[in-house]
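Re: that chain you flagged

S.,

Sorry for the slow reply, it's been a week of failed gels. I finally had a moment to sit down with the sequence you sent. For the record, here it is as I used it:
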Amino acid sequence: MDYSNIDRRSSSNKKVVAVVGGGLVGALNACYFAKRGFQVEVFESREDIRKAKIVKGRSINLALSHRGRQALKQVGMEDKIVSKGIPMHARMIHSRNGKQSAIPYGKKGQYILSVDRANLNKELLSEAETYPNTKMNFDHKLLDWNAETGAMTFIGPEGTKEEIQADLIVGCDGAFSAIRKQFLRRSRFNYSQTYIPHGYLELTMPPRNGDFTMKPNFLHIWPRNTFMMIALPNLDKTFTCTLFMPFEEFEKLTTDDQVIEFFEKYFPDTIPLIGVEALKKDYFRLPAQAMVSVKCSPYHLGNMCVLMGDAAHAVVPFYGQGMNAGFEDCLVFNEIMDQLKEDFSAVLPEYSRVRVPDDHAIADLAMYNYVEMRAHVNSKWFLFRKHVDNFLHIIMPRTIIPLYTMVTFTRTRYHEAIKRWHWQDKVINHGLLISATAALLGGTYLLVKHPPNISQIPVDHLWTRLQAFKPF
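Prediction finished late last night. Pasting the structure tokens below so you have them in one place:
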């Protein structure tokens, strides 16, 4: 086996940044570092997805919101990506009887964008390649790396070993990061992963007569308490439907008839939209996929390696913040680089200090939001509180800000958003309790002060009214 030893720094005085992982966060990071003038080497274990006939990997639609847009804006990519997204202004809740009701995401004009993962990845890779100081290395699998020297060993496309020397290694290689394995060998590195008991399965809702089969500017949700299905619009007029359900429930459906019976019971309005035959085919095309939540700290090792994106904080997809949090990692790191003059020995520990609590917070929020999406949206109290929160936000925009608004439409730090949410929740609940108590006492006072003259009402009329009365 050939073995070549290459120091990319030999032909240039620029520091070399090795970005491991050519996915969304890795490709965006390449743009950030290249824009700063570093010599950027991107290493991706897969082939170039821009040339691949079939793009392997996850395909759950992505919801791009404010944090992700701000990160894209810094490298001049926001407008290009937004132009290829579909605005979603609200959740559209589908009940079992076919009734639909919208729950707006925020104030009028606020929306999230449905974007295609593969297309976004291709656009970012192409943008990174426009920088002359960026080199793409596809089909390069990481074998080992050294945190003290920055030496990295890869197996290339021809099976040859290649050693690269870098000044900074940026691990953006996903939830099962090869870079992170080196961290696990060190003391005082905290790591946990949690698989939730639910899996996901994707189905496609084709267009009809060249148009969407449902209203396109919504994130459609079929909440069924212990499971749910969602649908996001695509530019080709299809909807990508994703069924989230406990694995044990998936395992109960083993025949075509059982699948159709299940959908007739829980999602009857989707059967004519997906198609009976397509539903049978798509359901068994692939097994249900697992979802994992990863937390770790710190995000850096010495002054030569840092983790970003899913490598640092894989989250379940229920707050639509996985990509946005990963993109914000790039933006936050870039801001710290500005503050600390690109001194890696100071930048890396500061990045861990700032970013770890926020990424842990969004991981927890993503877990919480699954319960909200599949169950709470069916609750009248939940809907009432949504209206109260939105009303208070309108009349007191700086004092009361709904949690979803803070997370999705601002760059309020995730952990600070949670703190503020808990405080607001207590204040609003106490206010509602006081208001209800005051109304009850006021009503009682009026009844005592001005009691109704029951004696003037005929007994037969009174009995008829009592029979007609139906308690809640």
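What I noticed first: The radius of gyration is 27 Å.

Talk soon,
D.
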